Fold:
Amino acid sequence: MNVQTRVKERAEEQSTAMSADQQAAIRTLANDLHRLNHAVMKAVEAGVSVELVRSARHHGGGGNWGDLLIPVIVTQAQ
Structure:
């Protein structure tokens, strides 16, 4: 089974107990993560190494939180 397909299936399974607004936010997040992963692959193919590191944690109240990321880029010496 394709990894991307399984991630999508897991997200859909988890979203059944969420509100419509929460489901829309998760779909947006999943789409943006797909684009981010594609961008990381393009950067790697261009010759750099990419590490995503948590830079902060956003707290939304009510116990909800999310990790914010920054890229650490390493170029190879020519």
